Structures are given as structure tokens and as C-alpha cells.
Amino acid sequence: MTDQAAPPRSKNRLNDSEDDVLARIEAFRRRRPRLIDEFVTLAHGAGGKASAALVDAVFFEAFGSPTPSDPGDAAVLEVPAGRLAFTTDSYVVNPIRFPGGSIGDLAVNGTVNDLAVTGAVPRWITAAFVIEEGLSIDVLREVAADMRRAADAAGVAIVAGDTKVVPRGAADKVFITTAGVGVIPEGRELGARLVEPGDAILVSGPIGSHGMAVMLARGTLAIDAPVVSDSRAVSALVEAMMDAAPGTRWMRDATRGGLGTVLNELVQAAGLGVIVDDDAVPVEPAARGACDMLGIDPLYVANEGMFAAIVPVAQADAALAALRSLPGGAQAARIGEVVASPSDIVAVRNAFGGTRIVDMLVGDPLPRIC
Amino acid sequence: MTDQAAPPRSKNRLNDSEDDVLARIEAFRRRRPRLIDEFVTLAHGAGGKASAALVDAVFFEAFGSPTPSDPGDAAVLEVPAGRLAFTTDSYVVNPIRFPGGSIGDLAVNGTVNDLAVTGAVPRWITAAFVIEEGLSIDVLREVAADMRRAADAAGVAIVAGDTKVVPRGAADKVFITTAGVGVIPEGRELGARLVEPGDAILVSGPIGSHGMAVMLARGTLAIDAPVVSDSRAVSALVEAMMDAAPGTRWMRDATRGGLGTVLNELVQAAGLGVIVDDDAVPVEPAARGACDMLGIDPLYVANEGMFAAIVPVAQADAALAALRSLPGGAQAARIGEVVASPSDIVAVRNAFGGTRIVDMLVGDPLPRIC
After folding, report:
1. Which of A4, A49, A76 is opposite residue B352, by nearest beta carbon?
2. Nearest CB to B257 within list A29, A47, A73
3. Domain A32-188 belongs to what architecture?
4. Residue B259 sits at the chain A interface (C-beta within 8 Å)
5. Which has more confidence, B5 or B218?
6. Is it true that B32-70+78-188 and B192-357 share their CATH fold?
7. Could you tell me the residue ranges of all domains in chain A?
8. Quick check: B20 pLDDT over 60?
9. Secondary-structure class of domain B192-357 per CATH
10. What is the pLDDT of residue A21?
């Protein structure tokens, strides 16, 4: 098997003198590969020259290369002693571009927001791409530019990444998985276990816009409503609220499953109940109209730029004022209260005194919205 | 749009007395959803009840839930002050199971190894799944079990995750993206800039087995060779080598693009050259045979359980002895040396004195091998 008399396997094999070798190798110098393709091919995922060219031309170009002289596999972070938050999410939204955003900013904002609602200050992000063969490289460049803009807006650095390419039909355009690390300020404690009866429930902004914007962008419904995704980093909102309401008990961004589902997760974890005033929950008129037409409860629609928070009643007004002073927080609202009984239940009260119970989302009215 | 006289949108709406409400809500208690499905559906990715059931029954079951009372979006890590390594990789291997491993252990080992060769002690992993609708839940359970076994073997905890489901045909079975964080011991410095002419090139084990094992497992070639993937965490090997050879300059796991490509990355980053002795590079006989039959140079075949290292000559024997004493390191070998000139070149010398230049991989002889 190791017979050296076998035919040469490489066209580069040279049985020449050392001088000949030295002469020929000049041709290999200064050979940093350049991207000349218009569409992604399997070679771009093979880890060789084409991969390097794609990463250089698209991702390093957009994100910057933290250590251009030594592009290793892992980024090195300088951290203080203490607690970090660490999270990940995959993004498979279809279509990849929609009013108010794209899979690129969503992939950054979603992970930034998961860190922020844990009480962390988001700092570093990784991005891994699974690309379908044949995707336009211009589309990829736009997605990468969206990611850079979102990262800059959120104050995070994209420090490491990966690119895989699968054959046509083995994926749908592009999936992005981001992971994030944030630093939790000393002394900050949050958790469902800290929530108490009487606490106020706040939301940082209107619900329902993201899921409906993506749904309508598919163009399969004969509805033409100006619904715009709320894709946005909430980290600045979180920090402003924590300053104004340091007793904040719990936060959660209401993504898949919507506000209704995250409040259910809260009551189950806390062993308490919540009562929400339907009229107090902000919903953009266009999003509400689209929900009404499709028979979808906005409480179950995914959001990507708002969060729910539980704060002590005494700090609720200060929290709201802080949220409302910032972009993305103008419609922040107090939507209800935590109760001891009935426990484990999300009850929604309307203006006529009727009450409905909102369970966790069952089924999936809106697949692939994030 | 907010007219409360509109027909009720939820079947749970109750316009009854509070007592009636209280009576009915008993039915909602103790309602932690249980997984009763055999195949993954879109609802398992919607973030609602089915998602919770899938995560409980498959992922929490396999990985353990770090904070079962409060399953938030981000894990909280206690870290010392200093440097962390942070990395990510997506795994799209086809088939998802092959001799010696599966997409599950690969997704853990690959990210563990990226951290280890940065000089970090791997500690925490996240795992994000993009699942094709219709995948058997038993298959997913097996993949999760493989991940847990690999994580335990590597001494890392899987601390956070995500599950997305895409419609049939929008992905191929399952893609897994892991991200990892490791702690870099104080004072440890590695990098291509530290490499010097005369340094020894080591490999921790044989090359070529992983890529060929996956290729043959597809069954599209009429070759029946006992090639087994080397999927394995190298973190223990790295630590043993760093103890024995504290002057180690640089390490890299030779995954996509193979040993030939990572050595090219090294010479480009260091501005030096390397000369490799072809006969000294360990290749399992079955893997070499398969490479010969397919006309593939083992230097370009992906590995998932070995790494290349540059060490000072004076520490090379100690490093080799340390590697050879551990599982996965028995075939560790010294395969060549770093040279000042010709620079930027990976030259491979055979037993007859012939020399070939091994460039970075061009094209992709083996798509979707990791």
C-alpha cells in the first residue's frame, strides 16, 4: 500500500534538481486566493483555496479579521473574573429578506437579545453558515453586511465563524447559527424564582410585527399590509431598564411562540400566575389587522426586538420611562400583574371583564419565521 | 383594528364567572408536555408545547438540564479572569452515521479540538440543531446520546442549545452547529509567529481515516475497506504534550483540507517553509488503500481526531513520548521540519529524494465529510 513506485498522485510532483524546484516555487508565492465566482459552489465549503477566497472576500471583508496574520480556529477573548452568559440559536427564516430585516441582522439580534435578557452585556458573537450550493455571492455579501451593521449597533464583535456548503436541495439558501458570549455585571441576579405576586409585567415594545412581516413577505397570501419586522438589539433597552429598575426580577425576549408562550414558561417556572390586560398589550395596527385576517392571536406571533420583564410595582414607572426614552422602546407598556392564584396560568382579561386562558403555543401557525 | 366586539380569536376564551374559570384551569395544571411523536414535525420547531416536549424528551434527557427550574435562553458560566477561546463549527456530514462515529460525536469533538489546538482547556459547548421535518426521533435520540458520550469523554458540558425544524426538502436530515468556550491557562502562548526554522513538525496520529470512512459509508463506491473515522477529542493529548513540551509553538487540527492545507496555512502565516518526509506521515493501511484507489492524496483528506504541532527540536522526543502514551496518540510521529527557505511552501520529500510541492486543497474531492 505504501509502494513508492506507484504513479505520482499529484501533478505538482517534481523529480527535478533543487534549483529547478526553487525556480518553480516562485509561481506559488503571493498566491493568496481571490474570489472570482458569482455563485457558491461545493469547493467553497471544502476548506481549501476556494474556502479561503470566500471567507476573505465576503466574511473578513464584512466583519474584519481579528487576527489577520494567524487565522486560527478559535478567537481569544480577554475576560474579567465572574459570570458570563453563553447562548446559541440557528436562523432558518424564509424568505431570507423581509420588510425590516434579513436573516443576517436577525441572526445577530436574536443572539444578542438572548444574552441581554439573561442580564448580560453582549460582547462577542460567532457565526456559522450552512450554504446551499448555487447561492449568489452577492446575496451572501448583503447578508454579511447586515450582520456587521447589526453587530455594530449592538456593540458586539463577530470573532469567529465557519462556512459549510451542501449540494443543491440539501438546504434552503442559507442557514446561520450564531453563538454569543456576554459579561454579567457583578451582583446582577435575575430569575423566575425571584418573581413575587403583585409584580408588574412590562413589555418593551409592540408584539406581532416580526412574524407577520415574514409571513406576508412570502407573498403566498393575498394580503398587502405594511407590516415591518421589529428585528433589533434590545441590549441598550435592557441596560437602561436595569439602571432605572435595579430590582427587575426576570426578563425574556418573546421570540418563537410569542409573548403568550414565554409568559407560560414564566408561570410554570415561578409557580405563580399572571393576569394580562388585553387592551394594554401594544400591537401595531397593521400587524393586528394581518393577525385578524389570518385568525392568528398576536400573543403567539414571534418577535425579534422586544422583551417582557417582571419588575417590582414600585419601580414599574421608572422602568417604563427609561424604556420609552430609547429607540425601540417608545411603545413600552405595563400590561398586567403577577398573581399568587390561579397559579401556573396565563389569564388574559378583556375590556368587558371576560377572561381567556392563553396556553403555550400548540402547533405552528408560522413555520420558519426565525 | 382593536375593536373588542370582533369575534373571539381563541377557543379558550371564557366569558364565565371567576369560579368557572378557576374550575376549568385545573385542567391546565400539571401539563408539562410529553413527547408522543415518532417523527419530527414543524411544530417541534415552533417554540411551543411540541418544542418543549422534544427538548425535554431528547435533549434534556441526553445532556441534562443545567437549571431545570428556569430554562432560560443563555447558560451562565463562572470563569476566572484571563483569556478564553471561543469557536464555532457547523456539521453537515452525510451520512450522519459512519464507521467510528456520527454527526453527534463529530459536532462535539470538532469544536473541542478547535479549542484545544488554540491552547485552551475546553469547558462548555452549545448545540444548535436544524432538523428536516420527518426525521425519526429515535435517530435524533441516538445522535444526542453520541453527543453526550463525546462531551463526557472530553470533559465538557453541553450548556445551551436550540432546535429549528424546516420543511421536508429544505435541509438534509439534521445539521448541528456547536460553539465552544475554553479556558487558556495563564502564560500559554501559541501562534505561527513563534515558529522558527529548525523546529520539528509532529502529528498526533494517522491521517486520512475520517474522510475516507465517510466517503465509503455512502455506499456509492464499490469499495469495501475497513476504514474507521478517527473522530475523537484531542484535548487530553494536547495537555499531555504541552506538559512535556512547554515550548510548543503552534498546533492545528487537520480537518477540512487535510494536513496539506493546514501546513500551507502555517507557512503563509509564519513566512517560513516546511519539508515533510512522505514516509514518516502515518496513514492507516486501509485508508491509504482507499485513497490510492480513488486517486486522492491523504494529505488532503479531513481528519477529526488528530492535530499537527510545531515544537522546538529539543522537546520533540518528549512531546512524542507524551502523545504515544495516551489513547489516540500511539501513532504520533515526527514528520518533518520547518525551514527558512524556500518560504511559503509545503514541500514533501519521498524516499527516492523526489520532492513535490503540496499546495492548499483546490476544489472538493469529498463534499460533506464534516
Report:
1. A4
2. A47
3. 2-Layer Sandwich (3.30)
4. no
5. B218
6. no
7. 32-188, 192-357
8. no
9. alpha beta
10. 52
